[in-house]
Write a structure and sequence with these properties.
- The chain has 565 residues and is an alpha/beta fold.
- The chain folds into 3 domains: 119 residues, 3-Layer(bba) Sandwich (Glucose Oxidase, domain 1); 110 residues, Enzyme I, Chain A, domain 2 (Orthogonal Bundle); 307 residues, Phosphoenolpyruvate-binding domains (TIM Barrel), CATH 3.20.20.60.
- The chain contains 22 helices and 17 strands.
- It has an 8-stranded mixed β-sheet. It has an 8-stranded parallel β-barrel with strand order 10-11-12-13-14-15-16-17, surrounded by 5 helices.
- GO terms for molecular function: kinase activity; metal ion binding; phosphoenolpyruvate-protein phosphotransferase activity.
- Its cofactor is Mg(2+).
């Protein structure tokens, strides 16, 4: 057969070779009986029983996912429980049953209306449609006594191909058996894409209807970096994909070809991520997201619980630096026990350091106490702390003063503590523009390219309609990164990057050329980035960066990088 290629959106820098297994879970319900033949009370009771059973399933699934994948990924099932109990949805189902529909048909009809509403919103809200489908399908299955397809026991070497994969579907996939997955729909921020990165699975989403032409049992190569699905690949193509997948894990630190040390660290969203980060050779933690300690609970963690979490992270790495980001609540991270405002645009509202210096000052002080104590622990010399979403010198000074004030209080109480290395996230245009004023007051900058790109380009990062604008390869974003690095020159201030851009091995040479000292990413890409660092010559990298910074368009940037890479 002749090799052919279908293109989609690659969501992991991994390749896999395997055999297509089509997953088509949707089953059409039979025609409903006449309304007069429907026992309304019995159907309402069936619906309530199904809701209770579905909630039990979700709680069990959440627990399994938290243990196997991570707390942050498991939180999606909390949203599913909310949908399951949403009054608008339950009232809609009740009305449909009272209108003469059996429970499963009422669920199908009501949820489909909300799915359509969410899809029409686009962006992240559009992707929530998959969550609704997940809840709908679960309820229909329970009501119709259907059996769930077991994706956890597929034959080894399977490539799962589907219209879409819901969170419940993706959480079942076993990386030991599945060589990758490909979907007709989806984007980089979909739950399927997020799970793929956490599970280290080669994956492509958003291929489109052309994917339907790929037959069950076909041999394919899944290139999760380029987004290419190669059907009926040649032996040479399969060998190349296998070689690309076989990247050595380096547990030692790496340097460029001409001897410049580059720290390659991992982003951590839960304590369960520490083991995989160590296994993949991360030098340390470049972004320890502390939000998981505060989410999915009825009250905030106390000082001791936080202290133990920070010490566990420090102990996981033998002398490796652990950079902890203080609480970044707000935006898309609601916390039930906090009085968070209902804002028109929460990403431009009260979040990050704005809350820590304002309504969450007490929470912030408790967190700072735990961090200062952790800095005085056996491994605490390697602790660094950074503030999120800093936009003004006043915020920076106030944040630093809070650390010094809490340290003085601990000293007065006779509690062992140390001031850790102190830095800020650079994720707003203001921080990039003011970096020269910030640099004398910090030990480091960490550039968060996900937020920096969306704020610089005024393009919400989850909105597929403006995804081309919100790309970190846009000249304006690259110049903001360059301005930040330049501002640190001559100061005792190192510069790291903890956004998605840092984990793209095709951009490692450029980032070295721009002057980054540290790169932090999802653990899955650490080996590839370390390999890319060792192949980079800094003089060539600087020349590449100079050329890229002269580009006027994203297309020109891509052309220069393609020529070099």
């Amino acid at each position: 057969m002749t090799e052919r290629t279908l293109s989609g959106i690659g969501v992991t820098p991994l390749s896999g070779v395997g055999t297509v297994v089509w997953y088509r879970p949707d089953a059409d319900l039979p025609e409903p009986p006449a309304p007069e033949d429907v026992d309304e009370d019995a159907e309402l009771a069936r619906f309530e029983d199904a809701r209770a059973a579905a909630e039990d399933e979700l709680e069990a699934e959440r627990e399994r996912t938290a243990e196997r994948v991570g707390e942050e990924e498991a939180a999606v099932f909390d949203a599913h429980v909310q949908f399951l109990n949403d009054p608008q949805i339950t009232d809609g189902v009740t009305d449909a049953i009272e209108g003469g529909l059996p429970a499963e048909h009422a669920v199908q009809e009501t949820f489909s209306e909300f799915v359509e509403q969410f899809e029409n919103m686009g962006g992240r809200m559009g992707e929530r449609a998959d969550d609704l489908r997940d809840v709908r399908d679960r309820l229909v299955r329970v009501l119709s006594d259907g059996e769930r397809v077991d994706l956890s026991s597929l034959p080894e070497g399977s490539v799962v191909v589907a219209e879409r994969l819901t969170p419940s579907d993706t959480a079942q996939l076993d990386p030991e058996r599945v060589a990758g997955f490909v979907t007709v729909t989806g984007g980089r921020t979909s739950h399927a894409a997020i799970f793929a990165r956490s599970l280290a699975l080669p994956a492509i989403v958003g291929v489109g209807e052309e994917l339907q032409s790929v037959e069950d049992g076909a041999e394919v190569v899944v290139d999760g970096e380029s987004g290419d699905l190669v059907v009926d690949p040649t032996d040479e193509r399969k060998e190349a994909a296998a070689a690309a997948a076989d990247v050595d894990v380096r547990h030692e630190s790496v340097e460029t070809a001409d001897g410049v040390d580059i720290e390659v660290a991992a982003n951590i969203g839960t304590l369960a991520d520490l083991g995989p980060a160590v296994d993949r050779g991360a030098d340390g933690v470049g972004l320890f997201r502390t939000e998981f300690l505060f989410l999915d609970r009825e009250s905030p963690p106390d000082e001791d619980e936080q202290y133990e979490a920070y010490v566990e992270a420090l102990e996981s790495f033998d002398g490796g630096r652990v950079v902890v980001r203080t609480l970044d609540i707000g935006g898309d991270k609601p916390v039930p026990y906090l009085d968070l405002p209902d804002e028109e645009n929460p990403f431009l509202g009260e979040r990050g350091i704005r809350r820590s210096l304002g309504p969450d000052a007490d929470l912030f002080e408790t967190q700072v106490r735990a961090l200062l104590r952790a800095a005085a622990s056996a491994d605490g010399a390697n602790l660094s702390v950074m503030l999120p979403l800093v936009s003004t010198v006043e915020e920076l000074r106030a944040g630093r003063e809070r650390f010094e004030s809490v340290a003085a209080d601990l000293d007065a109480d006779g509690v062992a503590n140390e001031l850790p290395e102190f830095g800020i996230m650079v994720e707003t245009p203001a921080a990039a523009f003011m970096a020269d004023q910030f640099a004398p007051h910090v030990d480091f900058f960490s550039i968060g390219t996900n937020d920096l790109a969306q704020y610089v380009m005024a393009a919400e990062r989850g909105n597929e309609r403006v995804s081309e604008l919100g790309d970190y390869r846009q000249p304006a974003v690259l110049r903001a990164i360059d301005a930040t690095v330049s501002a640190a020159e001559g100061e005792d201030c190192w510069v790291g990057m903890c956004g998605e851009m840092a984990g793209d091995p095709d951009l490692t040479e450029l980032l070295v050329g721009l002057g980054l000292d540290e790169l932090s990413m999802s653990a899955v890409t650490v080996p590839q980035v370390k390999a890319a660092v060792t192949e980079t010559d800094t003089a060539d990298a600087r020349e590449l960066a100079e050329r890229v910074l002269q580009a006027d368009t994203k297309a020109e940037v891509a052309e220069i990088l393609t020529l070099e890479l």
